[in-house]
Design brief:
The complex is a heterodimer of chains A (106) and B (176).
Chain A (H helix, E strand, L loop, with lengths): L2 E5 L3 E2 L4 E9 L20 E8 L2 E8 L8 E7 L4 E9 L4 E10 L1
Parallel strand pairs in A: 2-8
Antiparallel strand pairs in A: 1-3, 3-6, 4-5, 4-7, 7-8
Chain B lengths: L7 H15 L3 H6 L1 H7 L18 H9 L4 E2 L3 E5 L2 E2 L5 E7 L9 E8 L6 E6 L8 E6 L5 E9 L4 E10 L9
Parallel strand pairs in B: 1-9, 3-9
Antiparallel strand pairs in B: 2-4, 4-7, 5-6, 5-8, 8-9
């Protein structure tokens, strides 16, 4: 299964804009490469990734084969209140991954 | 220079194939024409269903998204490499001048590639919750080209910026 490294502050002040960083272990197969038997390797990329904060979708990215293998993304969020931040993704094979973290707003 | 035994057309095709494979410029291929002939036996990128080597114009990239809306080259900033040694993973950061308030924010952001077989490298849905219209990632590039970051503002207006990159080794090539 997909593994991921996720980094964000545990505690922020209300109204503060903070950085989220996510690195997912995924081959991001383009669909153009050939295997050792000269057969085409099927495309398999993460095609949808959503970030939800307090149950509401705040950021969404639809990558194509244009993102590197083991995709790394970095974006910002504005803290409003204490709650859960989750990032969900799905690839072409339908495999899903998720990271979750509680954000404490002081 | 072509050897007398090689017809000019074969030689040019070999150069084209080699330049698509290495994604280097024509100047380099003509500079070492004999090396290009040697590379002609290597599987060409085209054989793998890629349209590598074809560069889209700015209009080709923007028109399918922008349609008739106004589009301005300002307010978007790109930070990336000028010379990338490896097209498999090129750091790319883009940010948009926007207060990111409920009234005035970036709604969508596209990363577009001039040469990749898939033009839209990533499409982002943004909103005022982000606080800052900034995004970083690592992109995969099929050779030297221009990259475009296109942002749609909540007013319906589009803004973009272009970055020129030289990529010495393309990211979509498979020699296996």
């Amino acid at each position: 299964m997909a593994q991921a490294r996720f980094d964000m502050p545990h505690q922020v002040r209300a109204g503060e804009v903070f950085k989220l960083r996510l690195l997912v272990q995924h081959p991001m197969e383009t669909g153009y490469l050939l295997d050792l038997n000269n057969r085409r390797i099927a495309r398999n990329v993460i095609n949808d990734m959503r970030c939800t904060y307090l149950g509401q979708e705040v950021f969404r990215i639809e990558p194509s084969s244009g993102l590197s293998a083991n995709p790394y993304i970095e974006f910002f969020l504005r803290a409003t209140q204490t709650g859960e931040i989750a990032i969900d993704w799905v690839d072409d094979r339908g495999e899903r991954g998720q990271v979750k973290r509680m954000l404490t707003v002081v | 220079m072509p050897t007398p035994a090689t017809p000019r057309r074969d030689w040019l095709q070999a150069c084209l194939g080699a330049s698509a494979w290495t994604a280097w410029g024509g100047a380099w291929t003509t500079g070492v024409g004999s090396a290009a002939l040697g590379l002609a036996t290597v599987p060409r990128a085209q054989a793998q269903g890629m349209v590598s080597g074809k560069l889209l114009s700015l209009r080709d990239m923007l028109d399918p998204i922008v349609a008739a809306a106004p589009v301005v080259r300002s307010g978007v900033h790109i930070e990336t490499l000028i010379l990338a040694d490896n097209g498999l993973s090129v750091p790319f950061r883009v940010w948009v001048d926007s207060p990111m308030t409920a009234q005035d924010h970036v709604t969508d952001l596209w990363l577009l590639s001039q040469r990749n077989p898939v033009t839209v490298m990533a499409k982002m849905r943004m909103g005022p919750h982000l606080g800052r219209a900034e995004f970083s990632t690592r992109v995969r590039l099929a050779g030297g080209q221009q990259l475009v970051a296109l942002a749609r503002l909540s007013s319906g207006e589009f803004r973009y910026q272009v970055a020129d990159l030289i990529v010495t080794e393309a990211g979509c090539v498979d020699g296996s």
